[in-house]
Request: fold
Amino acid sequence: MRRRLVTTSSRVLPFLVPALAALAAWAGWLGWDQQRDVHPDGSTSGPYEPWQVVGLVLTLLLPVYRAVSRGHTAGAVLGTTAGLTAAAWYDWSDDASGLFVIGVGLVMTGSLAATAAVSGVTTLVGRGTRRTAS
Reply:
């Protein structure tokens, strides 16, 4: 019984930890800002400012790097993508037009591509470091 529990947790945690980190980072950086900004000409923007999104991305670099450096590349990519997608769905699902689904799809596609790229670079840099250290 204990052996199966350890095996199950060792398979689930590499996906769960980045997903929870992504959910927490979304809540911390984007979850509190729900108001659109109205400009003097009547146009609107927001609700997020660019610095909030940059902060979210920079915050997520650490859990992605940590997971990839421990050999959990799939967990880093899929967990982070799942966490950001779930957070966007929850945050935007009250949109009456239904267009939030397109935004959620873009978040999913963008986070999948970005975390895959960061994971690939991290893996390549890690291999180069190990070769020079030997």
About this structure: The radius of gyration is 18 Å.
